[in-house]
Design goal:
Rossmann fold; binds iron/sulfur cluster; pyruvate-formate lyase- activating enzyme; alpha/beta; single chain
Length: about 400
């Protein structure tokens, strides 16, 4: 096999970038590991992916990019399997790969297209290495975003997901500092045939009034709010250097649900952050029910090199593991109740082609055989079990 293979780890931003890398390197005998360094586990998986790729493609050029290529540069470059590292900031530039520039064409595989409108981060949360891995925050221009949306729609995407590292900071570095709400409005205006626009993880306190209004009232903006919440206790949020409080998140969700009751809430929560007590953990658990979080991503805390949190008194590994399990169990109960509440309700489902699809609230639903990928079909589920509607 003499073609490019891109192994994408970590976030949706990496996924979106991997689509670009794949088309830039089409025809090259190269394996790219687009790595992640958000947790120690992510770095372990990066190493594992590198070793596996070398076993499977012994003769191909093996190159590593992504956040681990920044944060773990020294140790990754010493791995015998690795032929080279490509800086995260230049990975979308063909010259960084020593190949001729050519127009990147999406590989037409996704019904949902991830569009990275923003990269990097100017914040300094005490547990996070992403600013080290991705640099300062920077935005695609409106024209660039519109070109990306058009390219994906032309290649069969039925839904667009706007993503980034800190997507609500989109525009701060552009003339007149437009806000994310304006971008969403402009995209929907420019593409009447785009029926579904979804937002990836957002910082609740950075949602601008127009964006809130679109989330609350615009049917083409999916009723799905994924919050970069991180914790449910104010003292821990302060030690994380987060910019929001528990009550601000609660107030935001209540205001949104009052206007759009079917909105589904997702969130990222960290379990076992340094100095986290049993009382802090209890608050982390109770925020799941209070916000009715039905899409929960749990991150067991792991110290990251060079971060302030790594120098704080650590919680022991067994406790971190147990607390992460608590959060996951709480979320399953909330999610199952929510899925049950969708039984008997007609849902507009985007067909994924693997016998499943997603409702606007991002509920996963089994579809009859032969459902065509990319179609939006109306389905009324009759049962819900194990996280799936049928
Ligand atoms: S906002 Fe905080 S958690 Fe998110 S990427 Fe920036 S520093 Fe990391």
């Amino acid at each position: 096999m003499n073609d490019v293979q891109v192994i994408s780890l970590g976030c949706r931003l990496n996924l979106a970038e991997s689509v670009h890398i794949r088309s830039m390197l089409a025809g090259e005998d190269v394996v790219v590991v687009n790595s992640c360094a958000v947790t120690a586990e992510a770095v372990r998986q990066t190493r594992q992916a590198i070793r596996r790729a070398r076993r499977e493609r012994p003769d191909a050029r093996l190159l590593v990019t992504g956040c681990a290529a920044e944060v773990e540069r020294a140790s990754l470059s010493q791995m015998p399997e690795v032929d080279g590292l490509v800086a995260n900031a230049t990975k979308l530039d063909a010259r960084a790969w020593n190949v001729a520039e050519r127009p990147a064409a999406p590989s037409v595989t996704h019904t949902r297209a991830f569009i990275a409108v923003q990269n990097g981060c100017d914040h300094a949360c005490t547990f996070c290495v992403i600013p080290q891995g991705r640099g300062p925050s920077r935005s695609l221009s409106v024209a660039q975003v519109l070109r990306e949306v058009e390219r994906h729609l032309e290649h069969g995407a039925a839904e667009v997901v706007l993503t980034g590292v800190d997507v609500t900071s989109w525009g701060h570095d552009l003339p007149d500092a437009p806000r994310l709400g304006q971008l969403v409005h402009t995209v929907l205006d420019a593409f009447p045939r785009l029926l579904r626009l979804r937002l990836s993880s957002v910082d609740g306190v950075e949602i601008d009034p127009l964006l809130f209004d679109l989330l609350a009232h615009e049917p083409r903006v999916m009723p799905h709010l994924h919050l970069s919440m991180q914790h449910g206790h104010d003292l821990v949020l302060k030690r994380m250097k987060r910019r929001h409080s528990r009550s601000q998140a609660v107030e935001l969700v209540q205001r949104l649900k009052a206007l759009r009751p079917d909105v589904a809430v997702g969130a990222d929560l960290i379990a076992g952050f340094p100095t986290e007590s049993a009382e802090h953990h209890a608050a982390n658990r109770s925020i799941i029910a209070e916000l009715e979080i039905v899409h929960l991503h749990v991150f067991p805390y792991s110290p990251r090199p060079g971060t302030p949190a790594a120098r704080m008194p650590q919680v022991d590994k067994a406790t971190i593991k147990a607390r992460a399990a608590d959060l996951r169990a709480d979320a399953v109960a909330i999610r199952d109740n929510w899925l049950q509440s969708l039984v008997g309700k007609p849902l507009e489902v985007l067909t994924e082609g693997d016998g499943h699809g997603y409702a606007p609230q991002f509920a996963r639903i089994a579809l009859p055989a032969g459902s065509r990928r990319g179609d939006i079909v109306t389905v009324t589920p009759t049962t819900a079990s194990q996280g799936l509607l049928q």
